[in-house]
C-alpha cells in the first residue's frame, strides 16, 4: 500500500531559498489556490492508491492472469523508484511545475489504460505507468511545497498533505470493494480516472498562473543516479517477470534482473547495508526487509482469499481499511505510550508482531481453518509496521547526522522499494516452484508465506545493530 511520506523523512530546504512571507495561513489569499489544489491532489492520489490495490486480485482473476499478479504488484514499485528520481531531477532542472503537471496527467491516462485492460499484460503496463506517475507526483509535490510557501508554512503544508490521506484510507478500500462486487472492477479504475481529471486540470492552471519565487541553482546535466536507478528498475521488472514462471526463458530473465540488482543496487544504498553494519546501514536494511514482508502479505493475502477462499471484495476492502487504521494506531502508541523506549527495542517488538502476522497468514492456508484467520494477518502486520516504520525513520535521522538527513531519507526510500521487490520476488518464486511440483494451491500459498519467516525474523535478530551510538557506549 502506497503511503504519504512522513514529514520527518523530508530534508528541510535551505533557508536561503526563501519565499516572500505575508504572514497569512495556508488558505490565505496568496496560498489558497495552491493549498486547495495540492490537498485535492493528495486526496485523490491516496484514494487511487488505496482503492486500486484491493481491486487488483479481482482484476487479475477476471483477466485469467493470476500467475502474473506478482508482476502487476511489483512493477508499480519498480516504476515508482525510477519515477521518484526522474521527478526529482526534472524538478531540479526546471522547477516542480512541469513534472507535477505531467505526473497528474499521466495518472489519469494510466487509470484509463488499466480500466480498459483486455489482458493481464495491459493491466501490468497500466500499473507500471501509474507507478512512474506516482513517483513523480510524490517528489514534485514536496518540491512544490518548498517553492510555493515560506519556511514557516512548509511543516503545516506537509501535515495537510498527510491529512489528505485519512479519509481515503478509511473509505477507499471498502468503497472500491462495493463497486467491484456490485458493478465491475473496471468501474473502480474509470471512476478514479474521472475523479482525478478535475484536480489534474486545476493543477495545470494553478501551476501556469503561479509565479513562485525560486532562485535555487538548477542542474544542467543528468545525474548518474538517474541512469543507475533506471537500470535497477529494469532489473526489478525483469526479476518480477522471471520468477512468475518455471521455464528456461523465465530463468534467464530472472538471472538478468538479479545481476542488475546485485551490481547496481548497492550504489544507491549506504556502504555496509548488505552486511548490516551497525548504525545507518543496518537501519536502512531493516527498512527494506520489514517493508518487503508487509508488502508481500498485502499482495498475497487478498489474492489467496479472493481466488482460493472466494471471499467477497467488500470484505477485502474492509481488511485494507482495518490495516490502515491499526497502522496509525501502532504509530500513535509507539510515539506516545512507548516514547521512553529505545527506538531499537521498538524495532524488535514490531518485528516480532510482524513475524506473528506471517504465522497467522500461514495458518490461514491450512485445511479447515476459517478464511478470516488469514485475513487477520494484514491488520496484525500493520500493527508491527506502525511501530517499526517511525522508529526506523528516527534512527536513520540520528545516524545520518546534520547535513546528511536528505541522503539518509533517500536511502531509506530506496531500500523500502528494493525490499518490496526482493521479498515479493522470493515469495513468488517459492509459490511457483511449489505449484510446478504439483502442490495444491493453498499449500503453495503456505510455502510462500513460510518463505517470509526469514526476512520477518531478521529485523528481530538484527534490531540491536540500529542502536544509537550513545546506547552502544553505555552497554559497552
TrEMBL record:
The keyword Isomerase is assigned to this record: no
Entry-linked PROSITE patterns: MFS
Annotated Gene3D superfamilies: MFS general substrate transporter like domains, Multidrug resistance protein D
Record's bilayer topology term: Multi-pass membrane protein
Subcellular location: Cell membrane
Alphabetical list of InterPro entries matching this protein: MFS, MFS_dom, MFS_trans_sf
Organism: Streptomyces rubiginosohelvolus
Membrane-crossing segments per the record: 31-53, 65-88, 100-121, 157-176, 188-208, 220-239, 251-269, 289-307, 313-333, 345-366, 372-398, 418-437, 443-462
UniProt KW Transmembrane keyword: yes
Keywords: Antibiotic resistance, Membrane, Transmembrane, Transmembrane helix
A Pfam family annotated for this UniProt entry: MFS_1
Tree of life domain: Bacteria
Major facilitator superfamily (MFS) profile domain segment(s): 34-467
Record protein name field: MFS transporter
Amino acid at each position: 500500500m502506497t503511503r504519504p511520506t512522513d514529514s520527518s523523512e523530508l530534508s528541510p530546504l535551505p533557508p536561503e531559498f526563501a519565499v516572500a512571507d505575508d504572514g497569512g495561513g495556508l488558505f490565505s489569499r496568496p496560498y489558497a489556490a495552491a493549498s486547495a489544489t495540492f490537498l485535492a491532489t493528495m486526496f485523490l492520489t491516496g484514494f487511487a492508491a488505496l482503492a486500486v490495490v484491493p481491486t487488483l486480485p479481482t482484476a487479475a482473476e477476471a483477466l485469467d492472469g493470476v500467475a502474473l499478479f506478482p508482476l502487476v504488484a511489483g512493477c508499480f514499485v519498480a516504476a515508482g523508484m525510477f519515477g521518484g528520481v526522474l521527478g526529482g531531477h526534472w524538478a531540479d532542472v526546471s522547477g516542480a511545475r512541469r513534472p507535477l503537471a505531467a505526473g497528474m496527467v499521466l495518472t489519469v491516462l494510466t487509470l484509463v489504460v488499466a480500466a480498459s485492460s483486455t489482458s493481464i499484460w495491459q493491466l501490468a503496463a497500466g500499473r507500471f505507468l501509474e507507478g512512474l506517475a506516482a513517483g513523480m507526483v510524490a517528489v514534485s509535490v514536496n518540491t512544490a511545497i518548498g517553492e510555493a510557501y515560506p519556511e514557516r508554512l512548509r511543516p503545516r503544508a506537509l501535515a495537510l498533505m498527510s491529512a489528505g490521506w485519512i479519509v481515503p484510507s478509511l473509505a477507499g478500500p471498502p468503497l472500491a470493494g462495493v463497486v467491484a462486487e456490485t458493478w465491475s472492477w473496471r468501474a473502480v479504475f474509470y471512476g478514479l480516472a474521472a475523479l482525478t481529471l478535475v484536480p489534474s486540470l486545476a493543477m495545470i492552471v494553478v501551476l501556469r498562473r503561479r509565479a513562485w519565487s525560486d532562485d535555487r541553482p538548477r542542474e544542467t546535466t543528468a545525474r548518474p543516479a538517474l541512469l543507475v536507478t533506471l537500470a535497477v528498475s529494469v532489473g526489478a521488472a525483469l526479476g518480477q517477470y522471471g520468477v512468475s514462471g518455471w521455464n528456461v526463458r523465465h530463468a534467464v530473465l530472472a538471472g538478468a534482473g538479479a545481476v542488475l540488482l546485485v551490481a547496481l543496487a548497492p550504489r544507491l544504498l549506504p556502504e555496509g547495508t548488505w552486511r548490516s553494519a551497525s548504525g545507518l546501514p543496518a537501519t536502512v536494511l531493516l527498512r527494506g526487509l520489514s517493508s518487503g514482508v508487509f508488502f508481500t502479505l498485502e499482495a498475497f493475502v487478498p489474492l489467496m482469499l479472493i481466488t482460493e477462499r472466494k471471499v467477497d471484495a467488500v470484505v477485502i476492502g474492509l481488511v485494507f481499511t482495518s490495516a490502515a487504521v491499526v497502522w496509525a494506531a501502532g504509530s500513535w502508541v509507539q510515539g506516545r505510550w512507548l516514547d521512553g523506549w529505545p527506538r531499537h527495542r521498538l524495532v524488535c517488538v514490531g518485528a516480532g508482531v510482524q513475524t506473528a502476522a506471517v504465522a497467522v497468514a500461514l495458518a490461514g492456508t491450512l485445511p479447515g481453518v476459517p478464511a478470516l484467520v488469514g485475513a487477520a494477518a494484514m491488520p496484525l502486520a500493520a500493527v508491527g509496521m506502525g511501530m517499526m516504520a517511525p522508529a526506523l525513520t528516527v534512527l536513520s535521522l540520528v545516524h545520518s547526522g546534520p547535513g546528511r538527513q536528505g541522503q539518509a531519507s533517500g536511502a531509506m526510500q530506496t531500500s523500502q522499494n528494493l525490499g518490496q521487490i526482493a521479498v515479493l520476488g522470493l515469495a513468488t518464486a517459492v509459490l511457483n516452484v511449489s505449484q510446478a511440483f504439483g502442490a495444491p494451491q493453498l499449500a503453495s500459498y503456505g510455502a510462500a508465506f513460510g518463505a517470509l519467516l526469514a526476512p520477518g525474523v531478521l529485523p528481530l535478530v538484527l534490531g540491536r545493530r540500529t542502536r544509537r551510538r550513545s546506547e552502544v557506549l553505555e552497554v559497552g
